[in-house]
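Priority: medium. Attachment 1 of 2:
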């Protein structure tokens, strides 16, 4: 799945909130795989960001870093409403790109 560092960084707090929730074992496994991939990309991002801080054109290059497209290779976790976790609308909006949420009304259509 392709995304940008900006979208990934914005979703991290919601991912951390999700990682603290009690989920089914199947869900936990897939979310953990996603978080491992995210951690790998954030290590690269932080390294590049540190290099940019030392450059004279930080603002321009930082914007390019945020817009840099990355490819996260993972199986997208599916979280069913029966998992009964509490997330805000903002959390769901930020996570939708990385996680599939399934609700009963969607299954009936």
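Attachment 2 of 2:
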């Amino acid at each position: 799945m392709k995304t940008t560092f900006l979208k990934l960084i914005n979703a991290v707090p919601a991912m951390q909130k999700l990682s603290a929730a009690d989920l089914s074992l199947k869900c936990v496994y897939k979310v953990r795989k996603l978080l491992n991939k995210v951690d790998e990309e954030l290590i690269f991002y932080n390294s590049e960001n540190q290099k940019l801080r030392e450059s004279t054109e930080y603002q321009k290059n930082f914007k390019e870093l945020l817009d840099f497209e990355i490819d996260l290779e993972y199986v997208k976790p599916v979280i069913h409403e029966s998992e009964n976790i509490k997330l805000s609308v903002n959390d769901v909006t930020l996570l939708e790109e990385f996680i599939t949420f399934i609700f009963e009304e969607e299954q009936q259509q």
